[in-house]
Amino acid sequence: MTQLLLVDDHTLVRSGFQLILEAQEDITVIAEAKNGEKALDYLMTAPHPDLILSDMHMDGMDGLQFITTVKKLYPGINIIVLSMDDSIQTVSQALQSGADGYLLKSSHLEEILFAIRHVQRGDKYISSSLGVNIINNVRHLLLPEYNKKEMMKLYDISERELSVLELISEGYTNAEIAEKIYLSKRTVEGYRQLLIEKAKVPNTAGLVRFGFQNKLLS
């Protein structure tokens, strides 16, 4: 059971996430705090959580200072940022300060739960939409000798599968993809699932991130 501390200066946000998270069998919210100072006060006097879900911009102690302090005093506690701020600079600063993950508040519940469990297993996690933004910002650094055909061969991805992946990354539904490339919706669904299995990712968001990270998408 993952014991979690919520830190956010909006009461409704804390209450909403607490209801959502406590509906999970493997997660319990043991406390909440409206800012970094209150959260540190709690940590000094109460049982420690396994993970802290914290906003970045709060009154008083900001998220960066809070993350740095927690990691210095309680290095065993994992921290995931949950923020509206999608600035690449902010994400980078949070991770450099010790955050184990960074999620946007617009993330789907499925991704938030996946991130919590992923981080609790000892890994890092960045919101899928942020991953795409980061890749777009560093795309100019990619080696010019990159060969897409080699990557397709490495992951056993056919031309048809690549076409489906490209349309998925553009936000088209299975039905829309089927109409565009003259296939049945069921066939497109099969291609999507096969791509997810080949990429070894949990969902479509992870598949798109995989495509950009491995330079199959541009």
Structure description:
53% of the residues lie in helices and 13% in strands. The protein is built from 11 helices and 6 strands. α6 runs parallel beside α11 (204-213), α8 (159-169) packs across α11 (204-213) and α10 crosses α11. The relative contact order is 0.09.
Radius of gyration, in Å, reads 20 Å
Largest sheet: 6 strands, parallel
Please identify which CATH superfamily of the largest domain we are dealing with: Response regulator
Sheet/helix structural class: alpha/beta
Cα distance spanning the termini: 40 Å
- By CATH, the architecture of the largest domain is named 3-Layer(aba) Sandwich
Mean pLDDT: 88
Do you know the CATH topology of the largest domain? Rossmann fold
Order of helices and strands: EHEHEHEHEHEHHHHHH
Question: In total, how many beta strands?
Answer: 6
CATH class term of the largest domain = Alpha Beta
Low-pLDDT stretches: 140-145
Helix percentage: 40-55%
Number of helices: 11
- The coarse overall form would be elongated
Strand order of the largest sheet: 2-1-3-4-5-6
Task: Give the DSSP E fraction (strand runs of 2 or more residues).
Answer: 5-15%
Counted up, domains total 2
